[in-house]
Task: structure prediction
Amino acid sequence: MRAILIACCALAISGCADIYGGYGGNGGKAGGDTVLVCHKGKKTLELPREAAKAHINHGDRFGPC
Result:
C-alpha cells in the first residue's frame, strides 16, 4: 500500500515539473521545441522554451493572447 501511495505522489509531482511547456508546438518556425507566449497582453509569440522563460519572468504569460 505504501509503495502505491509513493508511486501516485511521484506521478502527480512529475506532471507539474515542466512549468514551461503547457502550450506550444513540436518544432514550429523556431526550429525546435517551442511554446506560445502572450507578449505584453497584445501579441502571440512562438518561442523556443529557453526564450519563453525570460518572457514569463518579466510578466508575459503562456498561451495565445
